[in-house]
Amino acid sequence: MNSKEYNIAVDTYSDNIYRFVLKHLRNEMSAKDIVQDTFLKVWLKHEEIQAEKVKSYLFTTAYHCIIDWINKEKRNVDFEKVSENLSEPRKLEFDVSSILDEALNRLPEIQKSVVLLRDYEGYNYAEIAEITKLNESQVKVYIFRARQALKIYLKSRELVA
What we know:
By secondary structure, this protein is mainly α.
């Protein structure tokens, strides 16, 4: 891939990658950092990457950066945030988008990733398998289980609200 193809990839995919990362992390600053890191890593290997496969490479790289960020954050627990969250009374939520985000955040990380790639980004099973390094059967199972869990959670919210 040459620099012109790289710049086209940046223009074409940066918003999609940002949305994908933001859905995972719910932190705008970290999402922007990961997008930057993703494109930096792709640039460092731009000579090895075929232009036709840059989309898959970008999302794979972003996915791995997300996993690294999550693992790092697990080690760095901010105790002030924990105490703030415990002291705030829980609000009733009627916004469908926020309820869906809450439901997505309850999923295991791999299920959340495959659902976001499939339903938000529109990837097919083969592309998701390539990005996540799973086989297509595993991808289908994770998507099925995630959708079942979302359905159960959303139904339980419907009864409460």
